[in-house]
Target: Glycosyltransferase
Amino acid sequence: MSLHQRPHQKPPATGDSLPVSSTSAAPSRPLPLLTLPYLFSLLALLLFAALLLPWGPTRPSSVPASPWRAYTLQEAAAFAAAAGNGTLLLAAVSGPYLPFLSKWLISVRRAGRADQVLVIAEDYETLDRINAAWPGHAVLVPPAPDAQAAHKFGSQGFFNFTSRRPRHLLQILELGYSVMYNDVDMVWLADPFPYLVGDHDVYFTDDMTPVKPLDYSHELPPPGKKGRTYICSCMIFLRPTEGAKLLVRKWIDELKEQPWSKQRKSNDQPAFNWALNKTAGQVYVYLLPQSAFPTGGLYFKNKTWVKETKGKRVIIHNNYITGFEKKIKRFRDHGLWLVDEHSDQSPLGRI
Model:
């Protein structure tokens, strides 16, 4: 029976068929609107409405949480390249890598190139944090990867993280800019741009540790035992030429053809080398001098070579070692962890 209807009442059981006098009829009962069941139902309805319709004005979900969420790679690249006459420096980081980024930025600033830096932030917290301290120098290219899964070298998360790199580079090249990419476990001791001689499509460094003569060839080295070269994908300079774009597109294709698996715990570097080998003769390449751009497996382990080539260093790569703490310790042991005493020189301040 509805709470909004009163019950049908039967007429009094009398033999008189005449209508009951209005003076003798029982008084009419009001609708039972104030009964306890009704009040409970009304209260439940109000609570339900309050949950579905929050109090106060709401912001549409399409509105960005901060102005940097709508910042595009096209806008960010134009901003950084404007400081470098059409050339920008690119790095990519998630939150745990911020101390490494800060160290790298100190060294880049000392070389007078910090204004050209664009950081690809791989999570929104990092995007906002960098731009709060250094507006315009960070951008996030959606979708944001799972940054927490990208820390362990050889993991699928690390592969997913690094495989985004050539897509960013290709987009920048197609915008018409030259771009130098660096991993942030590098440190600059001098400006590398005077070493980018000639008008080559791409410049890169060797990832091998055997010592080369100072006058070795700047051509692409011959393939190694695995049928490909061992060029480092962590330091690359590209001009916006058709040859450079061809190489990066091939790099992207190789990553698709050789995805990460448990058996082949790959990263982006083998695919880069296959792309170099398969485009040989179509791309004008330049191998940078080992004495100026040493791999970590050479610089940190061959003291004799370091003494013999003293004063020639430009960029040192802290690779051939894994783990944040191990890398930091090695930098500190060689006086290269600049954030300890020079955080005031970082555009990000103290991290």
Observations:
- The chain is about 35% helix and 10% strand.
- Strands lie at 87-93, 117-121, 138-139, 178-182, 186-188, 202-206, 231-238, 285-287, 315-317.
